Amino acid sequence: MRLVSLFSATASSKAEVFKSRLSVPVFSRAFSAISLAVLFSSFSASYVSANDDFATCTSALEQKAQQQGVSQQTIDAIFPSLIHQDNVIKYDRSQPEFVQTFPGYFSKRVTEWRTNKGKEMYAKHKTLLQKLNDKYGVPPHYLLAFWGLETNFGNYKGKMPVLDSLATLACDKRRSSYFTQEFLVAVKLFEREKLNREEMVGSWAGAMGHTQFMPSAYTHYAIDGDGDGQINLWASEEDALSSAANFLSNLGWEAGFRWGREVQLPNDFNYQLSGYKNRQSLSEWNDIGIKRTDGSELGNADTSAYVIVPAGHQGPAFIAYKNFRVIMRWNNSEFYAISVGVLADKISGASGIQAPLPDLPAYSRKDIIALQGKLNTLGFDVGKPDGIIGPATREGIRNYQLANKMIADGFPGLDVMNALDISLEKRSS
């Protein structure tokens, strides 16, 4: 039935194109009609093939679901109406044209609106949040920060049909094993929680609800926070907050410890000491002159910590503790983890980042590819140019900076781009 309806829509649009050409000479009209027929025939054949592949794949998924104990009632409610989502494949394959720098990322996420809304949500859920803190050791402002960054406190949970999206990705060769498992878990969730397809919407990759849990996280860590006997991360804010606390606790959250903090680095700081691999105790960082933003001592403790300079030596610096890495287990991005930490601080009444954010352009991927190519040419091996600023690229930049008596922060600042004579691509207006 889906095949017929899509063909009908396509045939109609093709007919409109054909009608618009009736004013051209007869030979052109005849040629256009022949070309259109060939084009439509080719499109139809390729679509039938793709549709057959998806149907074959979902049939195999249906058998797996049955083997794993999914009821026939659930099978009948889900599998006959699965639709291949072409946009999901486009999103999975797409790469951003521009590379996000920390100032651009942070300023769009840690906003006054999110801060004020977080405080409002704290007042609404204060009793529950305190209970969760007592049970799991995760303070309220962190749960609120995750909620704010994931879905704007539930204002945007995604619009893609989760079951369709996951089935599409399961039937795609690139990451089939992972998404097959996630799809089957989502089917079982549908059955276990008595959900309906209309409410099961989320991100194109299948993340769901207020806190954007993948199905496996939903299954293992989501809990009933409002006591109604159902775990619904779309409809229940209490379920979502309780599940987030349980998830973070299981990820290793250390009660009584911060995520980290903004710091002042000494003028002679050796930026080669930054990064996760250079962890030291708080006492050792204190001894080399790192201070809090108000100029006071970091303090003496055995707590393991490391220094992060996400925007290079001209931007803010942070010292990160174990809970910072726990945040990164939720989303493996230092930018994200800093944003969660600072937003949490602001919701609890702190003032946010003190150091100014440098004015950096949004580099295009071509800019970074050009940078990587130039570094390779000069003997600073960063691997195959791919437009991604990963560890190898940062190490190459750092080695280039050292060789040229620059501050070796491993960051592609404008000073590095200018020194390497990289002509930056302009963002179109």
TrEMBL record:
Family annotation (InterPro entries): Lysozyme-like_dom_sf, MltB-like, MltB_2, Peptidoglycan-bd-like, PGBD-like_sf, PGBDSf, SLT_2
Any single Pfam family the record assigns to this protein: SLT_2
One Gene Ontology molecular-function label: peptidoglycan lytic transglycosylase activity
Domain Transglycosylase SLT positions: 54-345
Peptidoglycan binding-like domain residues: 365-420
GO biological process, one term: peptidoglycan catabolic process
PANTHER family for the chain: LYTIC MUREIN TRANSGLYCOSYLASE, MEMBRANE-BOUND LYTIC MUREIN TRANSGLYCOSYLASE B
Protein name: Lytic murein transglycosylase
Source organism (scientific name): Alteromonas hispanica
Taxon lineage: Bacteria, Pseudomonadati, Pseudomonadota, Gammaproteobacteria, Alteromonadales
